[in-house]
Amino acid sequence: MSRRKAHPDYVQKFTDRHGHLRYYFRRHGSPRAPLPGLPWTPEFMAAYNTALAGTGKRCVACDEPMSVQLHGSCKYCDACSAPAIYRFVCPDGRSYVGSTSYPRDRNLRGLERSNSWLLEAFERHPPETWTYEVLEKLPYGCSKEEVLDAEQQHIERLGSWMKEHGFNVHPAVWEGNSPAISAGRARREQEAANSERSRNNQVRLW
């Protein structure tokens, strides 16, 4: 007799920074959808079957499948108006990871000069030479915490919190004990100390 799998196909499992186990439906070409409860329970399978079936409708803006979360509430699909995790890739291969509610508009705005690592890289590689990529589409209406958790997962997966791999000086979330989050806290403390020394020097000059 064959054993039942731990969870159905297209289910992603991860533990958030609070230690809570979360499940998401994730299939190529479809938005990530949260699944309540535990695998194979009635509430889990009801949400899973809904996500698996989709709506059968397509976005009027980009002709991609409409997400379950948006059906009946908005004419745009997740590719147009739902949050997403993105990255800008430097010609040298390093990445800057971020999150946005409007991934298409984020690409048009381009990369911002938001930290010293990026400013240093721009001297050799102007922003217009970088490429933009959506790493993950998130469900419409998901919480800010879920967006930041997903962003942090990609920062750690790509190693973009380390200067040799990327430009994320600070983490997306500050709670947790991962190397990326610990390094971000250390940088923030160093920045505060440097700022305090600068203020003290200015006072002495007066």
- Number-wise, the strands total 6
The largest sheet, given as strand count, sense and whether it forms a barrel, is: 3 strands, antiparallel
Instruction: Tell me the CATH topology of the largest domain.
Output: GIY-YIG endonuclease
Following the backbone from N to C, one meets helices and strands in this order, namely: EEEHHEEHHEHH
Counting structural domains, the number is: 2
- Can you name the CATH architecture of the largest domain? 3-Layer(aba) Sandwich
- Global shape: globular
Question: In summary, what is this structure?
Answer:
The chain is an alpha+beta fold and 206 residues long. It folds into two domains: 67 residues, no CATH class; 90 residues, 3-Layer(aba) Sandwich (GIY-YIG endonuclease). The chain contains six helices and six strands.
Draw up the topology in text.
Elements: E1 11-15, E2 21-25, E3 33-35, H1 42-53, H2 78-81, E4 84-89, E5 95-100, H3 103-109, H4 116-122, E6 131-137, H5 144-158, H6 179-205
Antiparallel strand pairs: 1-2, 2-3, 4-5, 4-6
Structure overview:
The protein is α+β, with helices and mostly antiparallel strands and 206 residues long. It is built from 6 helices and 6 strands, in the order E-E-E-H-H-E-E-H-H-E-H-H. It has helices spanning 42-53, 78-81, 103-109, 116-122, 144-158, 179-205; strands at 11-15, 21-25, 33-35, 84-89, 95-100, 131-137. The strands form 2 sheets. A 3-stranded antiparallel beta sheet has the order 1-2-3, covered by helices on one side. A 3-stranded antiparallel beta sheet has the order 5-4-6.
